[in-house]
Amino acid sequence: MKYAYFPGCKIPRHLPEYDRATRAVLDRLGVRLAEVRFNCCGYPIRQQSFEASVFSAARNLALARRDHLTLLTPCKCCYGNLKHAEYWLKQRPNLRIAVNDRLAREGLHWDDDIRVIHLLTLLDEDLGEGMIRERVVKPLTGLRVAAHYGCHALRPSEVTQFDNPLAPTIFERLLAAAGAVPVDWPLRLECCGNPLQGKNDRLSLNLMTRKLQDARHAGADVVATACTYCQLQFDRVKSEAGFQGQARDYPPAVLVSVLLGVSMGLNFEMPDRCRV
């Protein structure tokens, strides 16, 4: 089983532990990753130039298509933008023609037979809970986990086509397969506040604080993330001015790859109060 691995721009520089843990877990599960010279997913310029954003995403999809591989990304922001491009290329023939004319200069072509998936989909659908359970040697028994879904994979649902946008269960199934106890918490589908960083920092912090308070009230030991931006928001922004001194009162954020890796016996560091 082989996939074209798309880590995106943020993970290698700002969250390399996500990359390391993802690669290690997938290796343990027998998944091979092809290294492709991808470019940016196009998300950062979507509001400045829709056409440029779509072309940037389409080029990545065409590279995966050239190699006859499914494109796999652990970044939900990248996943969302790649799915946006896929959606609009199907909806707008003139856009599709213009993009393919430009791709043809490199011998590439976009078509709707290219599959793009997020890491959670690979684990849940392509591999399945059974395979996850078979690899677990140190189950996360008793660890109460609040699964944080993030926005980019769930919305808009007609574009992303990722689980049930109003009542997703894919994350909880995977956590349960690793032996953890998923908790029900009312704000699990709400935004973490990261998109507001630099625009309204106070509101950004308040949104995150509400989520962490909600997870704590639900009895969570840890918040699990599967999104680059969400992890950066939970794990790093809460140490900034205005939040100092409160961080220890809330459950820490841990990447899904780290949680699964620990359950599979891989040597990943967990927060002291969350060790199993």
How do you describe this structure in short?
By secondary structure, this protein is of the alpha/beta class. It has 12 helices and 8 strands. The strands form 2 sheets. It has a 4-stranded parallel sheet with strand order 2-1-3-4, sandwiched between helices. Strands 6-5-7-8 form a 4-stranded parallel sheet.
What can you see in these coordinates?
The structure is a single chain. Helix content is 45%, strand content 10%. By secondary structure, the chain is α/β, with parallel strands linked by helices. The model has no long low-confidence stretch (mean pLDDT 94). The chain is globular. The strands form two sheets. It has a four-stranded parallel sheet with strand order 2-1-3-4, with helices on both faces. It has a four-stranded parallel sheet with strand order 6-5-7-8. The protein contains twelve helices and eight strands. It has two domains: 118 residues, Glutathione S-transferase Yfyf (Class Pi), Chain A, domain 2 (Up-down Bundle); 138 residues, Rossmann fold. Helix 3 crosses helix 4, helix 3 crosses helix 5 and helix 6 packs across helix 7. The longest helix is centred in the first third of the chain and has 17 residues.
